[in-house]
Predict the structure.
Amino acid sequence: MPFQELFDETLDINSTENYELSIQVSPDGLSFCLLDSIRNKYVMLRSFGAEENKYFNADQISELLRNDDFLIKRFKRINCVMPSSKFTLVPTALYDPGKKDEYFGFNHNLEEDNIILADKTHDPDAFLVFSISRSISDLIRSIYPKVHPHHHIKVLLEHTSFIRKSVNGYYIHAHIERDFFNLFIFNNNNLKFCNSFAYRNISDILYYVMNVFNNLGIKQEETIHFSGMTEKYDDLSSGFSLYIRNIKYTEPAGNFTFSYVFNDTELHRFINLFNVANCGL
C-alpha cells in the first residue's frame, strides 16, 4: 500500500497525552498527524493509501488502527474527519434533526451499508447532512467513543473562512479527492456555489469547473485555489493553466506551525487532516 511518514526528532511516544491526534479515514485510505499542544507544532504525519483502483474495507482499516504504535495511545484530544462525496447543506433556520434522512434524500440515494449523519457549520450557518460507511463509522466510534466525526466539507469551509474574508470579489476553491472533487465559490464572502462532482480524468474536472464559470459569469482572470490530491506542475495544473491565469495551492491555516520535516511536503494535499483541529462541534 502507498505509505508516507514524517516525524520530528522531538516526537515522544511516551508523551502522547501532550499531543492532539487528528485522523482522516475513508475507503481511500487512513492518515493521521500529531500536534504538540505545548508548542502548537505538528510533529508527525503518517499516511496509508489504498492501492490504485482498490479500497480499504472496515477490517483493513481496523487492522491499521489497532496495530499502529501511536494510534493505540491516549491523547489530549482526538479529531476525526471523514470525506464523503454525498452531502447537502441545510440552513440552520430550516433544519429539523428529525428530518435529516429526508433532506439527504432530496439529492442523493443512500447506498447499502451507509448511514446519514449531520455536522454543524458556522460560516455559512447551516447543517451538513452527509452519508458515510456504517461499518467504518461504527469502527471509529468503538475505538474513539467520544469523537464526533466531521465531514470534510465542514473542515474546508472553516479553512476558507481564514482566507476569503480578506478577498474582495470571488474566492474560488477546488478540492480534489481520488474519485470526486468539490468546488466552492464565494462572492464578497457569501457562498454562491458548493457542490461535489465525480470524475474519471483531468478533463472531467476542467469541464465541470469551466461550465460553472460560464453559468455564473465568472471571468477566467479570477484566481482558483487548489487543495487535495493534486501537485504543482501536474497534469491538472497544466490543463487549468490553459484557461485560468491565476492558480494557487492553499495551505493549512490556524494557530499552529510545522516542524522543519514538513518543509518539502505539499501541505495542501493534507489540508483536511491538518485543519480539522480548527473545528469545534
